[in-house]
Request: fold
Amino acid sequence: MPGAIDAFLVGISEWLSGSSVAVAGGSLFQLVIAYVSVKGPRGALNRFCVVPSEELSSIHGVQELPKAFGFDAFGTGS
Reply:
C-alpha cells in the first residue's frame, strides 16, 4: 500500500504544479476530495458521504458531490 500512497501524493503534487489556481485555503482532506473528483476514476466518490463546503466549491471547483452529507437529515434536536 505504501507505493499506492506515494503514487497518489505524487499525482496530487503534479496536479497542483500544473494548476493555474493557487490553493490558499481549505483543508488537506478537501484537496484530496478535489483531486479525486477531477483525476480519480469515474464514480470514485460514490461510496463516500462528503460534507459540502464553500471551500470545496469556490477554491477547489468541486460543484457536485454524489453523496453530499445533509445536516437536515438528522433533525435539529428541538
User: Anything to note?
Assistant: The chain has three helices and no strands. The chain has a mean pLDDT of 82. The CA atoms of residues 28 and 34 lie 10 Å apart.
